[in-house]
């Protein structure tokens, strides 16, 4: 029902002023400096006395609804032109309030584990970035880390304008991604950071979804056993005893480590879904950027099913259709190896790559050249963000820009050599720093891989061989925790790590922590 503002402020207020009702409330996601998603309807919801009449107004729109029997209410705003600032007006029967400085533009969720949570102040050029972070039309909100089996309706947080004083602790990947979109599209950008360091993918999924999927029976059985036997209070008491002994000894050696409670932690299935994701589900967004997988690397084969399930689950919960979901492949990490060997991290990267074929409207940012062997948290977050931004700008915003890394298509054996063909090479392949590509390994039927020589033979083909393998059957590229590799597209996107074989890997039988 549409109600003209003049009627609302006169006759309706006379009615409302005589009615009894509790204070109308909104979740923190609706607050000053917020951003609505452009070119789509946007829900607004909150709480009031059961049966209470609520009117919501913005930019000439007026929507009337009533709180249901449990006090929940919701309206759907029609699309609002990009820009602002606008004012959102909410009126109940005994209270009213205004949300000021509302913008309309592009809204993205920035999610995952610590590499997404990693802040500007801990990244390269933090001092320069903070000095130049004057973007009042980029808005930031962070969801606190709460691990629980009970769905939360709200969180403690508020929107901030991007500035030198607000950017330091925000997600670096999120900020750089949002800034790039803002600069190219010239519209406001809202960034919702809900990343939790060390989190496992299963914690981001509603528990019953996992319980009803036989593929995760072993994972859920393990957790049920853990939940029935773990006693945090006993563990805490034991720590206090050890800590007191350490103090009494004059603090000799390392102090005993205080136990974390896994029941409230970031691995327990459903914990982050309930405590972090649930309060924002349904908020109008354009899409999600995701950087996670390190905590699931030991269960990479399981991730082939778990990660696609999580993406589809989020989309079903949001009710916005198949919104874009762009994610970061794991970077290079740990020590380089002298000889080719198996790798859990390589298998996790493979599972991430496979997701693009399993789930529509997804995209992978390859950063096999950005990592740091000695640190699981690479400081170069700008390159990561730019590779994610390429996906959004090329896929969603119609820009003619390379966004997908070259990917393996097929192989053809020619004598003792194998010719590999790649898709998405665009302007052609390029070997960085050296005349020929490095990072390839080749094997015969004995499955014994050795380093291979390689040569680019045209825009999308590479020839691979080794004089020690007379009858090759399989090739791998960048298949290691921390591979030495140098093959790119000429647009500067690294070739996606891959293998041509499907031989069982080191994580095939791992199903739980």
The percent of residues in helical segments reads: 25-40%
Q: Report the sheet with the most strands, covering strand number, pairing sense and barrel closure.
A: 11 strands, mixed
What proportion of the residues form beta strands (DSSP E)? 15-25%
Radius of gyration, in angstroms, nearest whole number: 26 Å
User: What gross morphology would you assign?
Assistant: globular
Number of helices: 11
Helices and strands: which structural class? alpha/beta
Question: What low-confidence regions span 5 or more consecutive residues with pLDDT below 50?
Answer: 1-21
**Distance between termini?**
53 Å
Number of strands: 23
Mean pLDDT: 95
Provide a descriptive summary of the structure in words:
By secondary structure, the chain is of the alpha/beta class. It has helices at residues 5-17, 114-117, 126-131, 172-185, 207-211, 217-229, 232-248, 271-277, 300-318, 344-358, 381-396, and strands at 35-37, 42-47, 53-58, 61-66, 72-77, 83-91, 96-112, 135-142, 160-162, 189-193, 287-291, 325-328, 362-365, 407-414, 417-423, 429-431, 440-443, 450-451, 453-458, 461-465, 474-477, 487-489, 498-499. β3 and β4 (61-66) form a beta hairpin. α4 crosses α11 and α9 packs parallel to α10. The N and C termini lie far apart (53 Å). 43% of the residues are buried.
